[in-house]
Predict the 3D structure of the following.
Amino acid sequence: MTIEHIEAIPVRIKRDAAYLGTLPPGADPDSYFVRPPYRSLYSASFETVFVKITTSEGAVGWGEALAPVAPEVVATIINQLLAPVLRGRDPHAGDYLWSLMYNLMRERGYHGGFMLDAISACDIALWDVRGKLLGQPVYKLLGGPYREQVPCYVSGLPRSDHAGRIELAQEWLAKDFHTFKLHVGHGVQADTEIMRALRDALDVSTMLMLDGHWVYSLDEAVQLGHHLEALDVALFEAPLNPEDIDAHVKLAEAIAVPVAIGETERTRFQFKPWLTRRGADVLQPDAGRVGISELIKIATMAEAFNIPIAPHLSVGLGPCIAASIHVSAAISNFWLLEYQPPVFELANSLLKSPLVCQAGHYHLPEGPGLGIEIDEQRLKDLQR
């Protein structure tokens, strides 16, 4: 049996509300835009890349890359660089195929970014294929599960003011979700005020986390970190420029709130200095950027440093979510998995059988492989 066909499918779906809520003033809904104070490009649509791998005997596996902008770039890499070397190969040769794809461009400096996003999508699809061929869910192929359900946190409270965010958090509390992460980065004072408002309004058992979206200087991050300590905040994510490991080491030493990084990195090689230098207390690799194979290796390496894994999961629309759940079930040093309700709802609309997240936990997908199937007609209809 061999890999016969690889199809990359760029996805762009418009919704009433953009990712992270309403558009910033002046943003063109038909083009990419910057959402101040953040510096990254965003889209008014939900964008991703699906990969469909078919074997010579007709087995089909689905994968996905985290591609929130320009999904055609990742699709082109898959179609022109990866597909020709995967065709005719044994789909069971997982580690070999990952290395084969990675070696294609590493000597030319493409050992991160879009290239690794494309590799990750194919890697996820190959795990799905192997699970289906063997009649086993991916988490069993990975040696798990360590847990029968995967605990998660609600990522983002997309309301425009303190009262709205508190109201939304209370609605989630009524559904038995007790952990929340805010996407902020609006300044030390503003971030402190919203976290204080939430802490004062919510039950003492509620866990709060903060995502700084890389906007702070070291001095600002230390100052904010001390405020977060007093508010019993459980995590300070993405505080500083992601290239500056030195500053993260100083920040981690200066504050008691755990510092988290990871969505920018792609391989065990990139994560290694963060571990050896103690630049982070929690790692957040994203399955849509590292794949299943590399996420397992990153987690195993982090385990030797007693560092927990809390996988990043933003705009994955099905395979990426399922892959994250399987890996989270199968690693010993797992902490929490991200849950973005609007994204999750859209993802389920593309699946023949929905994924389940209730009472602060993801359920393990049933069935072989990732336990999901893309509804290809529904996907075509939503992209029209």
In short: The mean pLDDT is 95. The chain has 13 helices and 14 strands.
